Amino acid sequence: MSSNIEGFPFSEVPGTEVGRGYESIVKELGPNWVIKEFNPLRPDGTAKYEKAYENSQTQKTVGELQETQRILQQATVYGEHIMPTEWVLGQDAEGNPKYFTIQKRFAGETLKDIMVPQNEAESYSARFTKFFNENPELRTQMIELLWGTKSALVETGVFPDFHLGNIALTKEIDGAESLKIFDLQNMVKNRKLLYEDTNRSLSTKLNLLGSIEKHVTRLEKYHKWLGITEDEKKLFDQKYNLENNLYENTVDRILTMSGEINTERDIPSEVLTQISGIYPFLNEAEYNSYMEKAT
Ligand SMILES: Nc1ncnc2c1ncn2[C@@H]1O[C@H](COP(=O)(O)OP(=O)(O)O)[C@@H](O)[C@H]1O
Ligand SMILES: [Mg+2]
Predict the structure, then answer these.
(1) Per-residue pLDDT at 287
(2) CB of 183 sitting under 6 A from ligand 1
(3) Is 0.90 surpassed by the pTM of this model?
(4) Which of 26, 36, 102, when mutated, tests ligand 1's pocket best, judged by the most ligand atoms within 8 Å of its CB?
(5) String of DSSP letters for 156-174
(6) Does residue 161 line the site of ligand 1, with CB under 6 A?
(7) Digit-coded pLDDT (tens) for 234-260
Protein backbone atom coordinates (compact mmCIF):
# COMPACT_ATOMS: atom_id res chain seq x y z
CA MET A 1 0.00 0.00 0.00
CA SER A 2 1.40 3.43 -0.87
CA SER A 3 0.32 6.76 0.50
CA ASN A 4 0.56 10.33 -0.60
CA ILE A 5 1.86 11.46 2.81
CA GLU A 6 5.27 10.37 4.03
CA GLY A 7 4.96 7.84 6.85
CA PHE A 8 1.18 7.65 6.57
CA PRO A 9 0.40 3.95 6.16
CA PHE A 10 -2.86 4.20 4.17
CA SER A 11 -3.61 4.94 0.55
CA GLU A 12 -6.45 7.31 1.50
CA VAL A 13 -6.10 10.51 3.52
CA PRO A 14 -8.42 11.40 6.41
CA GLY A 15 -11.62 13.04 5.15
CA THR A 16 -14.67 14.62 6.75
CA GLU A 17 -15.10 14.44 10.50
CA VAL A 18 -17.86 11.98 11.42
CA GLY A 19 -17.82 12.46 15.18
CA ARG A 20 -15.75 13.26 18.21
CA GLY A 21 -15.49 12.18 21.83
CA TYR A 22 -13.27 12.87 24.80
CA GLU A 23 -10.44 10.75 23.38
CA SER A 24 -10.69 11.13 19.66
CA ILE A 25 -11.66 13.08 16.60
CA VAL A 26 -13.09 10.56 14.15
CA LYS A 27 -12.70 11.09 10.39
CA GLU A 28 -13.58 9.18 7.24
CA LEU A 29 -10.74 7.11 5.80
CA GLY A 30 -11.88 6.10 2.35
CA PRO A 31 -15.46 4.86 1.98
CA ASN A 32 -15.35 1.98 4.48
CA TRP A 33 -13.08 3.00 7.33
CA VAL A 34 -12.64 5.71 9.94
CA ILE A 35 -9.47 6.98 11.58
CA LYS A 36 -9.51 8.05 15.25
CA GLU A 37 -7.10 10.94 15.79
CA PHE A 38 -5.98 12.17 19.21
CA ASN A 39 -8.30 14.91 20.49
CA PRO A 40 -5.95 17.49 22.09
CA LEU A 41 -8.76 19.38 23.84
CA ARG A 42 -11.00 18.68 26.79
CA PRO A 43 -14.72 19.19 26.26
CA ASP A 44 -14.48 22.66 27.84
CA GLY A 45 -11.92 23.72 25.19
CA THR A 46 -8.84 23.72 27.44
CA ALA A 47 -5.78 21.72 26.41
CA LYS A 48 -5.14 18.28 27.85
CA TYR A 49 -1.95 17.91 29.85
CA GLU A 50 1.19 18.05 27.72
CA LYS A 51 2.20 14.38 27.92
CA ALA A 52 -1.27 13.11 26.93
CA TYR A 53 -0.49 12.72 23.24
CA GLU A 54 2.92 11.16 23.86
CA ASN A 55 1.38 8.66 26.28
CA SER A 56 -1.25 7.68 23.76
CA GLN A 57 1.56 6.77 21.35
CA THR A 58 3.62 4.43 23.53
CA GLN A 59 3.95 0.75 22.78
CA LYS A 60 2.71 0.18 26.33
CA THR A 61 -0.57 2.06 25.82
CA VAL A 62 -1.32 0.35 22.51
CA GLY A 63 -0.49 -3.02 24.11
CA GLU A 64 -2.88 -2.29 26.99
CA LEU A 65 -5.66 -1.32 24.61
CA GLN A 66 -5.09 -4.49 22.60
CA GLU A 67 -5.24 -6.51 25.81
CA THR A 68 -8.48 -4.69 26.75
CA GLN A 69 -9.92 -5.61 23.37
CA ARG A 70 -8.89 -9.25 23.81
CA ILE A 71 -10.66 -9.39 27.19
CA LEU A 72 -13.82 -7.80 25.82
CA GLN A 73 -13.91 -10.06 22.74
CA GLN A 74 -14.30 -13.21 24.87
CA ALA A 75 -17.64 -14.96 24.35
CA THR A 76 -18.49 -14.55 28.06
CA VAL A 77 -17.95 -10.79 27.80
CA TYR A 78 -19.03 -8.96 24.60
CA GLY A 79 -17.92 -11.48 21.94
CA GLU A 80 -19.24 -10.45 18.54
CA HIS A 81 -20.70 -7.26 20.00
CA ILE A 82 -17.25 -5.68 19.81
CA MET A 83 -16.51 -3.74 16.65
CA PRO A 84 -12.74 -4.30 16.37
CA THR A 85 -10.30 -1.41 16.60
CA GLU A 86 -6.99 -1.78 14.74
CA TRP A 87 -3.65 -0.09 15.30
CA VAL A 88 -1.28 0.49 12.39
CA LEU A 89 2.29 1.66 12.94
CA GLY A 90 3.49 4.47 10.69
CA GLN A 91 5.24 7.80 11.21
CA ASP A 92 4.19 11.32 12.11
CA ALA A 93 5.25 14.42 10.16
CA GLU A 94 8.58 14.53 12.04
CA GLY A 95 9.32 10.89 11.26
CA ASN A 96 8.60 9.63 14.79
CA PRO A 97 6.85 6.27 15.11
CA LYS A 98 3.10 6.81 15.40
CA TYR A 99 0.18 4.45 15.84
CA PHE A 100 -2.83 5.14 13.67
CA THR A 101 -6.12 3.90 15.11
CA ILE A 102 -8.65 2.75 12.57
CA GLN A 103 -11.99 0.95 12.52
CA LYS A 104 -14.53 -0.19 9.94
CA ARG A 105 -17.04 2.58 9.50
CA PHE A 106 -20.55 1.85 10.71
CA ALA A 107 -23.64 3.24 9.08
CA GLY A 108 -26.31 3.97 11.62
CA GLU A 109 -26.91 5.77 14.86
CA THR A 110 -25.69 5.29 18.39
CA LEU A 111 -28.22 4.28 21.05
CA LYS A 112 -27.68 7.72 22.57
CA ASP A 113 -29.04 9.34 19.38
CA ILE A 114 -31.92 6.89 19.26
CA MET A 115 -32.97 7.49 22.87
CA VAL A 116 -33.59 11.21 22.43
CA PRO A 117 -37.22 11.66 23.59
CA GLN A 118 -39.59 12.12 20.65
CA ASN A 119 -41.82 14.71 22.33
CA GLU A 120 -41.93 16.80 25.49
CA ALA A 121 -44.16 14.36 27.34
CA GLU A 122 -41.88 11.41 26.75
CA SER A 123 -39.33 10.67 29.46
CA TYR A 124 -35.95 9.16 28.74
CA SER A 125 -36.77 5.96 30.62
CA ALA A 126 -40.15 5.60 28.86
CA ARG A 127 -38.44 5.98 25.47
CA PHE A 128 -35.84 3.39 26.43
CA THR A 129 -38.48 0.90 27.57
CA LYS A 130 -40.67 1.47 24.53
CA PHE A 131 -37.80 1.11 22.06
CA PHE A 132 -36.67 -2.23 23.43
CA ASN A 133 -40.22 -3.57 23.90
CA GLU A 134 -40.87 -2.88 20.24
CA ASN A 135 -37.59 -4.57 19.25
CA PRO A 136 -37.39 -7.81 21.22
CA GLU A 137 -34.35 -9.01 19.24
CA LEU A 138 -32.45 -5.87 20.23
CA ARG A 139 -33.71 -6.17 23.81
CA THR A 140 -32.01 -9.59 24.01
CA GLN A 141 -28.82 -8.07 22.61
CA MET A 142 -28.99 -5.25 25.16
CA ILE A 143 -29.32 -7.82 27.95
CA GLU A 144 -26.25 -9.57 26.53
CA LEU A 145 -24.37 -6.27 26.70
CA LEU A 146 -25.42 -5.73 30.33
CA TRP A 147 -24.26 -9.19 31.31
CA GLY A 148 -21.05 -8.82 29.31
CA THR A 149 -20.38 -5.57 31.18
CA LYS A 150 -20.90 -7.30 34.54
CA SER A 151 -18.67 -10.12 33.44
CA ALA A 152 -15.90 -7.65 32.51
CA LEU A 153 -16.05 -6.15 36.01
CA VAL A 154 -15.80 -9.57 37.62
CA GLU A 155 -12.82 -10.48 35.46
CA THR A 156 -10.84 -7.25 35.74
CA GLY A 157 -12.18 -5.23 38.70
CA VAL A 158 -12.99 -2.27 36.44
CA PHE A 159 -15.74 -1.50 33.94
CA PRO A 160 -15.46 -0.95 30.19
CA ASP A 161 -16.63 2.52 29.04
CA PHE A 162 -20.22 1.33 28.87
CA HIS A 163 -22.75 3.98 27.90
CA LEU A 164 -25.28 4.51 25.11
CA GLY A 165 -22.97 6.88 23.21
CA ASN A 166 -20.52 4.02 22.65
CA ILE A 167 -23.05 1.53 21.25
CA ALA A 168 -24.02 1.60 17.57
CA LEU A 169 -27.12 0.09 16.07
CA THR A 170 -25.74 -1.37 12.86
CA LYS A 171 -27.48 -3.00 9.92
CA GLU A 172 -26.10 -5.95 7.98
CA ILE A 173 -26.65 -6.21 4.22
CA ASP A 174 -29.39 -8.78 4.86
CA GLY A 175 -31.20 -6.24 7.05
CA ALA A 176 -30.35 -7.87 10.40
CA GLU A 177 -29.75 -5.28 13.11
CA SER A 178 -27.17 -5.62 15.82
CA LEU A 179 -25.71 -3.67 18.72
CA LYS A 180 -21.96 -3.05 18.51
CA ILE A 181 -19.64 -1.45 21.03
CA PHE A 182 -17.08 0.61 19.13
CA ASP A 183 -15.12 2.49 21.79
CA LEU A 184 -12.45 1.05 24.09
CA GLN A 185 -11.02 2.63 27.18
CA ASN A 186 -7.79 1.43 28.72
CA MET A 187 -9.13 -1.05 31.29
CA VAL A 188 -5.71 -2.62 31.83
CA LYS A 189 -4.26 0.72 32.90
CA ASN A 190 -7.31 1.60 35.02
CA ARG A 191 -7.02 -1.72 36.77
CA LYS A 192 -3.37 -1.06 37.62
CA LEU A 193 -4.09 2.47 38.80
CA LEU A 194 -6.88 1.33 41.09
CA TYR A 195 -5.45 -1.88 42.53
CA GLU A 196 -1.68 -1.90 42.04
CA ASP A 197 -0.09 1.49 41.77
CA THR A 198 0.09 2.67 45.36
CA ASN A 199 1.96 5.86 44.48
CA ARG A 200 -0.88 7.24 42.48
CA SER A 201 -2.81 10.13 43.93
CA LEU A 202 -5.90 9.53 45.97
CA SER A 203 -7.99 11.54 43.53
CA THR A 204 -7.10 9.16 40.65
CA LYS A 205 -8.33 6.19 42.66
CA LEU A 206 -11.43 8.10 43.77
CA ASN A 207 -12.16 9.03 40.15
CA LEU A 208 -11.99 5.37 39.20
CA LEU A 209 -14.17 4.30 42.11
CA GLY A 210 -16.62 7.08 41.29
CA SER A 211 -16.77 5.76 37.74
CA ILE A 212 -17.46 2.25 39.03
CA GLU A 213 -20.32 3.53 41.19
CA LYS A 214 -21.81 5.39 38.23
CA HIS A 215 -21.63 2.26 36.09
CA VAL A 216 -23.33 0.18 38.78
CA THR A 217 -26.17 2.70 38.93
CA ARG A 218 -26.40 2.85 35.15
CA LEU A 219 -26.64 -0.95 34.86
CA GLU A 220 -29.35 -1.02 37.56
CA LYS A 221 -31.37 1.58 35.67
CA TYR A 222 -31.15 -0.30 32.36
CA HIS A 223 -32.01 -3.53 34.15
CA LYS A 224 -35.17 -1.92 35.48
CA TRP A 225 -36.14 -0.16 32.23
CA LEU A 226 -35.76 -3.41 30.27
CA GLY A 227 -38.05 -5.18 32.75
CA ILE A 228 -35.68 -8.12 33.16
CA THR A 229 -37.47 -10.99 34.91
CA GLU A 230 -36.07 -13.31 37.59
CA ASP A 231 -36.02 -16.16 35.06
CA GLU A 232 -34.09 -14.07 32.57
CA LYS A 233 -31.61 -13.08 35.27
CA LYS A 234 -31.04 -16.75 36.12
CA LEU A 235 -30.62 -17.70 32.50
CA PHE A 236 -28.09 -14.95 31.74
CA ASP A 237 -26.22 -15.44 35.04
CA GLN A 238 -25.72 -19.03 33.91
CA LYS A 239 -24.69 -18.11 30.36
CA TYR A 240 -22.14 -15.56 31.57
CA ASN A 241 -20.80 -17.64 34.50
CA LEU A 242 -22.16 -15.15 37.03
CA GLU A 243 -24.14 -17.53 39.22
CA ASN A 244 -24.34 -17.18 43.02
CA ASN A 245 -24.44 -13.40 42.83
CA LEU A 246 -20.86 -13.22 41.60
CA TYR A 247 -21.36 -9.75 40.09
CA GLU A 248 -23.25 -8.36 43.07
CA ASN A 249 -20.60 -9.65 45.48
CA THR A 250 -17.82 -8.17 43.36
CA VAL A 251 -19.55 -4.78 43.42
CA ASP A 252 -19.96 -4.99 47.22
CA ARG A 253 -16.29 -5.77 47.65
CA ILE A 254 -15.16 -2.87 45.49
CA LEU A 255 -17.53 -0.38 47.07
CA THR A 256 -16.44 -1.49 50.53
CA MET A 257 -12.88 -0.68 49.49
CA SER A 258 -14.15 2.71 48.39
CA GLY A 259 -15.69 3.23 51.84
CA GLU A 260 -12.43 2.23 53.51
CA ILE A 261 -10.36 4.74 51.53
CA ASN A 262 -12.82 7.43 52.56
CA THR A 263 -12.75 6.54 56.26
CA GLU A 264 -8.98 6.14 56.36
CA ARG A 265 -8.51 9.59 55.00
CA ASP A 266 -11.31 11.00 57.10
CA ILE A 267 -12.47 13.29 54.32
CA PRO A 268 -16.05 14.56 54.41
CA SER A 269 -18.12 12.80 51.79
CA GLU A 270 -19.22 16.05 50.08
CA VAL A 271 -15.56 16.84 49.38
CA LEU A 272 -14.98 13.37 48.00
CA THR A 273 -17.95 13.72 45.69
CA GLN A 274 -16.45 16.98 44.50
CA ILE A 275 -12.97 15.54 44.00
CA SER A 276 -14.31 12.67 41.95
CA GLY A 277 -16.14 15.19 39.76
CA ILE A 278 -13.07 17.34 39.09
CA TYR A 279 -10.74 17.12 36.07
CA PRO A 280 -9.17 15.07 34.67
CA PHE A 281 -12.35 13.33 33.72
CA LEU A 282 -11.80 9.74 32.79
CA ASN A 283 -13.76 9.98 29.59
CA GLU A 284 -16.70 11.50 27.83
CA ALA A 285 -19.25 9.62 29.94
CA GLU A 286 -17.79 10.92 33.20
CA TYR A 287 -17.71 14.41 31.77
CA ASN A 288 -21.35 14.20 30.69
CA SER A 289 -22.37 12.87 34.05
CA TYR A 290 -20.51 15.72 35.76
CA MET A 291 -22.13 18.31 33.53
CA GLU A 292 -25.56 16.83 34.25
CA LYS A 293 -24.98 17.33 37.95
CA ALA A 294 -23.41 20.74 37.55
CA THR A 295 -26.34 22.20 35.62
N1 LIG B 1 -16.43 3.14 13.37
C2 LIG B 1 -17.14 4.26 13.34
N3 LIG B 1 -17.96 4.53 12.28
C4 LIG B 1 -18.69 5.68 12.24
N5 LIG B 1 -18.69 6.63 13.21
C6 LIG B 1 -17.89 6.43 14.28
C7 LIG B 1 -17.08 5.25 14.40
N8 LIG B 1 -16.41 5.31 15.57
C9 LIG B 1 -16.76 6.47 16.14
N10 LIG B 1 -17.66 7.16 15.39
C11 LIG B 1 -18.27 8.47 15.72
O12 LIG B 1 -17.36 9.25 16.48
C13 LIG B 1 -17.85 9.50 17.82
C14 LIG B 1 -16.71 9.37 18.84
O15 LIG B 1 -16.10 8.09 18.72
P16 LIG B 1 -15.53 7.26 19.94
O17 LIG B 1 -14.84 6.09 19.41
O18 LIG B 1 -16.63 7.01 20.92
O19 LIG B 1 -14.47 8.30 20.55
P20 LIG B 1 -14.09 8.60 22.07
O21 LIG B 1 -13.21 7.46 22.49
O22 LIG B 1 -13.37 9.89 21.99
O23 LIG B 1 -15.37 8.66 22.86
C24 LIG B 1 -18.95 8.47 18.01
O25 LIG B 1 -19.95 8.91 18.89
C26 LIG B 1 -19.49 8.27 16.60
O27 LIG B 1 -20.44 9.29 16.30
MG1 LIG C 1 -16.92 7.32 23.01
Answers:
(1) 52
(2) yes
(3) no
(4) 26
(5) HSS----SGGGEEEEE-TT
(6) no
(7) 999 999 999 999 999 999 999 998 777
